[in-house]
Amino acid sequence: MKKQAAVIGAGSWGTALASVLGQNQHTVRLWCRREALAEEINTAHKNEGYLKGIVLPDNIVATTDMKEAAEKASYIVLAVPSGAVRKIARKLMPYLHEDTIVVHAAKGIEPESFLRVSQILKEEWADLSFRGMAVLSGPSHAEEVAEQQPTTVAVSGTSEQVQTLVQELFMNQAFRVYTNDDFLGVELGGALKNIIALGIGLTSGLGYGDNAKAALMTRGLAEITRLGTHLGASPLTFTGLSGLGDLIVTCTSEHSRNWRAGNQIGSGKSLEDVLEQMGMVVEGVRTTEAVYHWSRELGVEMPITEGLYKVLFEHVPPENMAKSLMERGKKNEKEHSIMLLDNN
Ligand SMILES: NC(=O)C1=CN([C@@H]2O[C@H](COP(=O)(O)OP(=O)(O)OC[C@H]3O[C@@H](n4cnc5c(N)ncnc54)[C@H](O)[C@@H]3O)[C@@H](O)[C@H]2O)C=CC1
Ligand SMILES: O=C(CO)COP(=O)(O)O
């Protein structure tokens, strides 16, 4: 059935998600910051700056007016960088109502508070009543979603009903949505894989090959799972689309901004230059900062995150990261899995 949906954020991901909703014949209002972009979307049905060469469904209406975008929507999809979520949550406050379902699609952890995006939203909207919240996450580069290439993602919701409604809202022949009741795990997987993708990009920039890539992906997944299960997520979620799936796509695709940023830093560019030239969000930088401090506070070992933090924030040369990871004390590969099995 046709729904009223608002997508907040007309960058790569917001535009791609609006496109999926438009293909599904929903009424879509896409909120953007810049008038010129709204004009481009409404007249040329394009967003060339973010999704080059893509023609958008003509039932997407772009606006810079939050009221116009969100007021009548029964679904509000948040697709801004995690760093903008608090500000946007405040702007959205007047337009949430009893029937609103909020779907967030951002992947990050807030430095200092160590909050996930859904926790930021709950904090900002503590006094409001709305129908529910969901997180949409998985291996889904916007460029391929916009081209209607086959894509699979996971959705988790504050209730089973919300989860199923969001699955129905997005699902189509090119965009397959699986439900997963582990909200925490789905949200964490998407945020944490960006750290590992940055790290792998870094080693590629240094000239290391596929063995290093496979090592970092495998041990990266181990450290994501270690933190996630410590916090109460299911280990199985990290083997699914929002865990391993998203890790694979972000660590192996040249679409990935996190991988590309790491690659350029490994090749000798400064973090500041890389971020300035990217022109799009590189979530892994902020999440590395958050998770480095968070894991130390929790006493959870995350050596890849630690190594990357030192490169990004303490000016340690990238080659030292690989060296320090290789020279760590002897370990049993299954240490953590054995501990998890023992606890069950
Ligand atoms: N691009 C992708 O393939 C995917 C991205 N994501 C996640 O979606 C989120 C958004 O990413 P992208 O769309 O790729 O980023 P982007 O850099 O392509 O676009 C970001 C959009 O947010 C807007 N924005 C930035 N700061 C803002 C602020 N302070 N207030 C209001 N609007 C602001 C920008 O104007 C732009 O429209 C991130 O958390 C990302 O990890 C998730 C899945 C896939
Ligand atoms: O999350 C993504 C794909 O699932 C996008 O990753 P990047 O932000 O690294 O481009």
TrEMBL record:
One Pfam family of this chain: NAD_Gly3P_dh_C
Recorded metabolic or biological pathway in which this protein acts: Membrane lipid metabolism; glycerophospholipid metabolism
Domain Glycerol-3-phosphate dehydrogenase NAD-dependent N-terminal: 5-161
Gene Ontology terms for molecular function: glycerol-3-phosphate dehydrogenase (NAD+) activity; glycerol-3-phosphate dehydrogenase (NADP+) activity; NAD binding
Binding site for sn-glycerol 3-phosphate: K107, G138, S140, K193, D246, S256, R257, N258
Membrane-crossing residue ranges in chain numbering: none
EC number: 1.1.1.94
InterPro entries, per the entry: 6-PGluconate_DH-like_C_sf (IPR008927), 6PGD_dom2 (IPR013328), G3P_DH_NAD-dep (IPR006168), G3P_DH_NAD-dep_C (IPR006109), G3P_DH_NAD-dep_N (IPR011128), NAD(P)-bd_dom_sf (IPR036291)
Glycerol-3-phosphate dehydrogenase NAD-dependent C-terminal domain: residues covered: 182-322
Enzyme class: oxidoreductase
Amino-acid positions noted as binding NAD(+) in the UniProt annotation, renumbered to this chain: G9, A10, G11, S12, W13, G14, A142, R257
Residues annotated as catalytic: K193
Reactions mediated catalytically: sn-glycerol 3-phosphate + NADP(+) = dihydroxyacetone phosphate + NADPH + H(+); sn-glycerol 3-phosphate + NAD(+) = dihydroxyacetone phosphate + NADH + H(+)
Cellular component terms per the entry's GO annotation: cytosol
Residues annotated to bind NADPH: S12, W13, R33, R34, Y50, K107, A142, R257, V281, E283
UniProt entry keywords in alphabetical sequence: Cytoplasm, Lipid biosynthesis, Lipid metabolism, NAD, NADP, Nucleotide-binding, Oxidoreductase, Phospholipid biosynthesis, Phospholipid metabolism
Xref: SUPFAM superfamilies: 6-phosphogluconate dehydrogenase C-terminal domain-like, NAD(P)-binding Rossmann-fold domains
Positions with a binding annotation for substrate: K107, R257, N258
Listed GO biological process terms: carbohydrate metabolic process; glycerol-3-phosphate biosynthetic process; glycerol-3-phosphate catabolic process; glycerophospholipid metabolic process; phospholipid biosynthetic process
Origin: domain of life: Bacteria
Compartments, as annotated in UniProt: Cytoplasm
Known function: Catalyzes the reduction of the glycolytic intermediate dihydroxyacetone phosphate (DHAP) to sn-glycerol 3-phosphate (G3P), the key precursor for phospholipid synthesis.
Family stated for the protein in its record: Belongs to the NAD-dependent glycerol-3-phosphate dehydrogenase family.
Cited PANTHER family: GLYCEROL-3-PHOSPHATE DEHYDROGENASE, GLYCEROL-3-PHOSPHATE DEHYDROGENASE [NAD(+)] 2, CHLOROPLASTIC
Protein name, UniProt field: Glycerol-3-phosphate dehydrogenase [NAD(P)+]
Organism of origin: Marinococcus halophilus
Gene: gpsA
